[in-house]
Design a protein that fits this description.
Layout lengths: L3 H9 L8 E2 H8 L4 H9 L12 E2 L12 H12 L12 H4 L3
Parallel strand pairs: 1-2
Helix pairs in contact: 1-2, 2-3
């Protein structure tokens, strides 16, 4: 069996462009980990990786703050470039853009 972080990355790679999943969803699909562990795994990614980390958001449909604000702004920019729409409160409609 693959190490936990590798299993998390493999699951996140399955999220198609223009869709999002929550940390909790990824944790449940991978099994044996928590939403927080998914966050730790994604935070440990190095620049230039091929994991679409931007497609994982919190259960309220929002980007979780990270990277002193820079990471959050980049995440929103990347999602918007994929066609994901945010409402005025910064939320993503999980019914419309959620995966799976």
């Amino acid at each position: 069996m693959l190490p936990l972080y590798q299993r998390i990355y493999a699951m996140v790679k399955q999220i198609p462009p223009g869709r999002v999943a929550t940390y909790g969803q990824i944790a449940a699909l991978v099994g044996g980990c928590s939403a927080q562990m998914v966050g730790f795994a994604l935070a440990s990614l190095k620049d230039g990786n091929d994991v679409p980390w931007q497609r994982v958001i919190n259960r309220m449909g929002m980007i979780s703050p990270h990277g002193y604000g820079y990471g959050s702004a980049l995440q929103r920019e990347l999602l918007e470039s994929e066609g994901v729409v945010f409402d005025l409160e910064g939320r993503i409609d999980l019914e419309r853009f959620g995966w799976p």
